[in-house]
Amino acid sequence: MKELELYFKGNKKNQIHKWSNYFDIYERHLSGFRNKNIVFLEIGVSQGGGLQMWRHYFGDGAKIYGIDIDPRCRGVEDKNIKVFIGSQADSKFLREVIEKIAPIDIVIDDGSHNSSHQIISFKELFGALREGGVYLCEDTFTSYWLKYGGGYKRRSTYIEYMKNIVDDLHAYHSRQKRFKVTEYTKSISSVSFYNGIVVVKKGNQAPPRELKSGDLMLLGKLGQYNSKTKKVRFIVLYTINYILRALKLPPFIWK
Fold first, then answer.
1. Is 113 a catalytic residue?
2. How many DSSP H helices and E strands does the chain contain?
3. Confidence at residue 250, expressed as pLDDT on a 0 to 100 scale
4. Residues 113, 117, 170, 173: which is the catalytic one?
């Protein structure tokens, strides 16, 4: 059992609410920030036990901040813990928080669980992350719950929004005019999907370079296939799949 889970199970202070599979994910993505002078921000304070857990985990050098709409949450402020009162759906408020605490190393969104709020928070706060920082959104299964405006493959959900960012990661390789490089293409090094959590890591991404090493060994008859026949096959395949792509239909593969 790792540090966070041990703390959670031994917690006798303010309540903490987590799902059992989250602890391994936290350790995988956040352990490298321990005992460093980091800035940590969690959306959704609730009873305050989460902020106390993170202060314990990251150590005395960490500055721990929380965001919540309930003014009573200020009551959990303590050494190295400060709470801002406001809505995660309020872009102006989030920018004011950024001005006070940025650059940020870690953001955890455990707030309203409403997809539109999660998307606004990501758009505003991801840019305030330091290089190598981590943005972690919890309880993303609410993207499938009607109570939170969710639904399977519903376009307005946070999960569908993050699926589009997976496309952004590949935009340097685009051969379609409407599929263009975005700021996310340039600034996200990875997106990791888990049951209930999506983790985004910030990192400068220059266009990748294609590299080769070694000699061509398979020559002879295989090499002779670079002929008019191959060119014709390529033109036919390209034309058919160009049309199928425009119609968003599965590709044709010449067997």
1. yes
2. 9, 7
3. 80
4. 113
